[in-house]
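I am hoping you can look over what I have pasted underneath with an eye to the fold:
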Amino acid sequence: MGRVESKVKLSRKTYQMFKKYSPGAGDGLTKVFPFFATILLKGKTKMKKLFLFLVLIFTLVPLMFGCEKDSDSVGEITVIVENNVGDEVFNEKIAFGEDDTLLGLLQNHPTIALKGEEQSFGFYITEVFGIDANDFERTYWSISVNGEYSLVGIGDIELITDDVITLSMLTY
């Protein structure tokens, strides 16, 4: 005699009970991965914990040790931001790539978020780290490279490894 198949809708509890006592039946996971399904659906608590621990280890270890700063980075600079009273509000190392410019790097940095406008003489910085020079009387953003006042605009500063770039809001 042939097997009679019916289209009976099982309750969630019944389906889970069916899966628990019939690994391999009615579940795509148990058909494809019977060993893992047996551990998860029918296995002992220690086996479940061991299996989950191994999955966790094999997932997290590559993430923890496989992440490098930036595979395309060729160097690193330190950027310091000083507000209008001379307090240091930002001081971090930032990696840069071969095609990066200081202007692009700082405009795209999520914390520094440098803003400004292109003028006839170059890029004029108006805002750094959420501090807008227009909010204060007679102030502007100054750029120093390794402690020396920059004689060129931000768009012309060459990125060199280990340089220290300081953006300071000064009063004139």
Remarks:
- Strands lie at 73-82, 88-97, 115-119, 122-128, 131-132, 139-145, 148-149, 164-171.
- The chain is about 30% helix and 30% strand.
- Residues 21 and 42 are 7 Å apart (CA to CA).
